Amino acid sequence: MKRKAILSSLLFLATLAFAASPANQPFGEWRRLSGTPILSPRGTTWESAGTFNPAVTFVPSKDPEDSAGGRFVMLYRAQDASGTSRLGYAESTDGIHFTRRPEPIFSPETDYEKDGGVEDPRLVLINGIYYLTYTGYNKKDAQLCLATSLDLVHWARQGVILPAYKGNWNVGWTKSGAIVPEKINGHYWMYWLGTAADKTGQMGLSYSDDLLHWTEATSACLP
Fold first, then answer.
1. pTM as predicted
2. Distance (Å, rounded) from C-alpha 199 to C-alpha 37?
3. At the N or C end, where does the chain have fewer CB atoms within 10 A?
């Protein structure tokens, strides 16, 4: 019952935020800073067909003379002409102008990523470790997966954390996991996307004590 009360409170606050006028919302009114994309497809290889679905985090500088105070790091999904996705790396000091690495930092390797690739990056830093949730897609199944890193470049796979076609209500794929960066009531929490019995995409909620093993918190998808 306590978890349901917390969840209801979070959903109520989110509803109030979206119902408020733009001027009263937490981030103010949104406006485009550029009429052109900050990243576009380029070349003829791994990022020639698409660059999209990014995750961005700010990395503070350890240099006291760094006027920018650190850098923004973006991991983005890049797709080649055959439809295979990889994750590219770009960084920026102003959050607008990004410089890309020439090669991807995360590419499909396992059976659950083969041919389709790695998609939908989501990033969170907890206790000095970066946790990357991503979708592993093999042109047949899409499943929510996890990788960890200390530097945002070198990644250790932790495997599939929410398998497809399993769970309390999910009957299809799992993807797009977003981990809350701090514990609530002694657990880490993650929102994710699954497929309900009516074939619609719905949001689920799971919790974990170690960020590696996850348990569903609800018997049905979130309202």
1. 0.87
2. 33
3. N
Six-digit token string for 189 = 């929490």
Give, as one character, the DSSP assignment of residue 184.
Answer: B
Q: Determine the distance from the C-alpha atom of residue 100 to the mean position of all C-alpha atoms in its chain, rounded to a whole number.
A: 19
Angle ∠(54,57,63) on CA atoms, nearest 5? 140
Tell me: the pLDDT tens digits for 199-222?
Answer: 999 999 999 999 999 999 999 999
CATH number of the 39-61+68-216 domain: 2.115.10.20
Alpha helix stretches (DSSP H) within 66-136? none
Backbone phi, then psi, for 193, in 5-degree steps? -110, 130
Q: What's the pLDDT tens digit per position in 25-57?
A: 788 888 888 889 999 999 999 999 999 999 999
Please tell me what DSSP assigns to residue 112.
T
Amino acid code (one letter) for 9: S
